[in-house]
């Protein structure tokens, strides 16, 4: 069973999000990308290899995860990719001084229900500063009782479900894992809702 520092594992959701990035790689050069809860940083590294200007982040309270991000960058010949500490739901100098972003990435950040609102608070803050930004996120379905729909409404965000087959990620080997539990992966794109809620 995984230890509390989840960011030290390559989760199936990261592989699926990396596949989405690869499938859409032609649109990535020059795009400004921030990966939150990066852990081993697979999606962010793929985006960087495809020409995006990437910043990786994980909780400032988890130095081991931040070090893991840095090691992943070095192992993939991406020493220039910045790694910063960002804790969801916390306003910090790092959050306030972030450069503009076009895409926010998050694979399996919706892991613990207690963190859901903190994640969306941070995403909403970033989108208020960058109104055209999108949050591309994949997550593993762990419970039918866990939902972010009410929080999306509260934070004036909308989401579009992205079918895995639309980017060739519905293959068993992509979302497979030796980790315990169910491995149904979903993807959505979250953005600011219009003033009328759409």
Automatic annotation (TrEMBL):
It holds the Pfam family Methyltransf_16. InterPro entries: Methyltransf_16, SAM-dependent_MTases_sf. GO terms for molecular function: methyltransferase activity. GO terms for biological process: methylation. It comes from the Eukaryota. The keyword Transmembrane helix does not apply. One of its GO terms (cellular component) is nucleus. Gene3D superfamilies: Vaccinia Virus protein VP39. Keywords: Methyltransferase, S-adenosyl-L-methionine, Transferase. The keyword Secreted does not apply. Belongs to the methyltransferase superfamily. METTL23 family. This is MET23 protein. It comes from Nothocercus julius. The lineage of its organism: Eukaryota, Metazoa, Chordata, Craniata, Vertebrata. The gene is Mettl23.
């Amino acid at each position: 069973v995984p230890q509390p520092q989840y960011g030290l594992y390559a989760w199936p959701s990261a592989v699926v999000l990396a596949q989405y990035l690869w499938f859409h790689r032609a649109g990535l050069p020059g795009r400004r990308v921030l990966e939150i809860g990066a852990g081993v940083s697979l999606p962010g590294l793929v985006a960087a290899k495809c020409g995006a200007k990437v910043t990786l982040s994980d909780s400032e309270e988890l130095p081991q995860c931040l070090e893991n991000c840095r090691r992943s960058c070095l192992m993939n010949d991406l020493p220039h990719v910045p790694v910063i500490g960002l804790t969801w739901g916390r306003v910090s100098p790092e959050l306030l001084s972030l450069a503009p972003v076009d895409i926010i990435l998050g694979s399996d950040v919706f892991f613990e229900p207690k963190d859901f609102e903190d994640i969306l608070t941070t995403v909403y803050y970033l989108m208020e500063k960058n109104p055209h930004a999108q949050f591309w996120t994949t997550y593993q379905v762990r419970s039918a009782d866990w939902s972010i729909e009410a929080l999306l409404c509260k934070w004036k965000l909308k989401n579009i479900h992205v079918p895995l087959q639309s980017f060739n990620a519905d293959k068993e080997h992509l979302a497979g894992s030796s980790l315990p539990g169910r491995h149904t992966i979903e993807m959505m794109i979250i953005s600011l809702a219009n003033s009328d809620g759409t």
